[in-house]
Design a protein that fits this description.
Blueprint: H1 3-38, E1 47-54, E2 60-64, H2 78-87, E3 93-100, E4 107-111, H3 120-132, E5 140-144, E6 179-185, E7 195-199, E8 206-209, E9 212-214, E10 218-223, E11 229-237, E12 241-247, H4 251-266, E13 274-276, E14 285-293, H5 294-303, H6 307-319, H7 329-342, E15 350-351, E16 363-364, H8 366-377, H9 382-387, E17 390-391, E18 408-416, E19 419-427, E20 434-441, H10 448-467
Parallel strand pairs: 4-5, 5-13, 8-11, 9-11
Antiparallel strand pairs: 1-2, 1-20, 3-4, 3-14, 6-7, 6-12, 10-11, 15-16, 17-18, 18-19, 19-20
Length: 475
């Protein structure tokens, strides 16, 4: 064997050893930076579970407590959204239909498809379409909300959050996100009653207003639990306006009322119409329908962390699996796990009771979230999945976070009492794609310190991505 050959082998070995040493050094720099972020008093009594992976090699670059079962908050939404991308074609739609029992068009059936973004304007369009198709009088309106089961709240949801719109009433006939916006305006002159406006406007939503205009504000806007009765109390500074969203109770009744109201506006006689919240003994034939693409709901679900969208997506997985009535969260979770397992995503550390992350019974390990993110990163549907996530400094729940950072972070936030989470993808221009999982919990008080630490860790990940020699184009 020639000396020249041996010299070449030796040089190559030195080169590879140098590359390996450089990569190890870069990984060590990342690990040291993250450890420094976590070595602060904020975590003296608080769990910080973190996992960072290289999506190309699958190598774990940093981990701490990644095998602990923790509450994911809205990071739970990553699982039904990934299952929807993997198991449902982009052409999948939510369908809210209007059918007639016979050719007289006097008995109609409005069947809910669980469209979480269905609003007042959509109800109006459905009524106008009914008139255009020959409906002149409605004697009986069946409001069929049987697609979903009777559980209007999820397992492990907190009863005292009922008035908060983040915990929506679950119905296959939603309206305006199953929330009412209450807007209060104070006259310029002190001592006068304030004006209260509600949207959607409905006779089923009542307001008891005793508030007045004053020199300074001390106003409360509350809802009597398990009702649509709103209490406006106190004072609002003269000339000021404020608004608040409250959850709706039994939104399917408001849906029916709104539909008949818009029918009358369109020219359909409905004065003696009977509303029945059930399915008739015989089904009719469809005369009109409203459809919404699933990806529109996925985007609202992940970018804005919309809980009604998440619960609806979860149930849609079961509907596309063959369920047609009384679909529950459990049905959706079974379908979700089947889809994820077929894609090679491990679910043995995934213990969810809902699709939104509201439930305090939800438990998952950071390793499980990392498995999902890295598997999706190499899947042909990655772009569809990633496009539904919020972009730091740009939109959704990350719009005001990490602004000015060179690089991209697409992710899902998670916030419930005592829990702050952030998971997603970090990538520098021309750098390696990294999956980032951070679950922080068991604290009291403000979430702000934990969010700031999460944002700094993301910056460290983007800096590491930029240093990586073997690059892939930014996605």
């Amino acid at each position: 064997m020639s000396n020249m050959y041996l010299s070449s082998v030796f040089a190559a070995s030195l080169f590879l050893a140098g590359m390996l040493s450089a990569q190890q050094t870069d990984v060590q720099k990342l690990a040291d930076a993250i450890r420094k972020e976590l070595a602060v008093p904020a975590f003296a009594q608080t769990i910080a579970a973190v996992e960072i992976r290289d999506c190309v090699s699958g190598a774990v670059l940093f981990s701490q407590h990644r095998d602990l079962l923790l509450r994911p908050a809205s990071n739970a939404k990553l699982f039904p959204s990934a299952a929807a991308v993997l198991g449902l074609p982009r052409e999948t739609v939510y369908r809210t239909s209007l059918s007639a029992v016979d050719s007289s068009f006097h008995t109609l059936i409005c069947t809910g498809g669980g469209d979480p973004l269905f609003g007042v304007k959509d109800i109006q369009k459905l009524a106008e379409n009914a008139y255009a198709l020959g409906v002149t009088r409605i004697d009986t309106l069946y409001v069929d909300g049987s697609l979903f089961d009777a559980a209007f709240f999820g397992a492990g949801w907190m009863w005292d959050d009922e008035s908060d719109p983040f915990m929506p009433y679950l119905s296959s006939l939603p309206v305006e996100g199953n929330a009412v916006r209450v807007t209060v305006s104070a006259p310029a002159r002190p001592g006068l009653p304030v004006d209260v406006d509600i949207h959607p406007s409905s006779s089923l939503i009542t307001v008891d207003n005793t508030a007045v205009s004053a020199s300074r504000s001390d106003l409360s806007i509350e809802k009597v639990p398990r009702s649509n009765h709103i209490l406006v109390r106190g004072k609002l500074a003269s000339g000021q306006r404020t608004s608040e969203r409250l959850s709706l109770w039994e939104p399917q009744a408001i849906f029916a009322e709104q539909f008949l109201m818009f029918c009358r506006t369109a020219g359909i006689a409905t004065d003696s119409a009977v509303i029945l919240h059930e399915s008739p003994w015989r089904m009719g034939f469809e005369i009109a329908a409203h459809t919404r693409p699933i990806d529109q709901v996925l985007t609202e679900m992940n970018k804005e962390s919309d809980n009604l969208c998440a619960e609806s997506i979860l149930r849609l997985l079961a509907v596309k699996d063959g369920s047609t009535r009384g679909v529950s969260a459990s049905d959706g979770l079974r379908s979700m796990k089947r889809i994820l397992s077929r894609a090679g995503i491990q679910t043995y550390d995934l213990h969810l009771r809902d699709g939104s992350g509201i439930s305090f019974y939800n438990l998952v390990t950071p390793r499980c979230i990392g498995d999902l993110l890295t598997t999706m990163a190499t899947h042909p549907s990655y772009n569809r999945f990633a496009e539904s996530l919020a972009v730091a400094g740009t939109d959704g729940t990350l719009k005001r976070r990490q602004s000015g950072t060179t690089g991209t972070f697409r992710g899902k936030t998670g916030t419930i009492s005592g829990v702050s989470a952030l998971s997603g993808y970090a990538q520098a221009p021309g750098g390696r794609l990294l999956s980032v999982v951070m679950l922080m919990q068991n604290f009291s008080g403000s979430h702000k310190p934990y969010r700031e630490i999460q944002d700094r860790i993301v910056v460290h990940c983007i800096q590491h991505s930029a240093r990586t020699k073997k690059t892939i184009p930014p996605r």
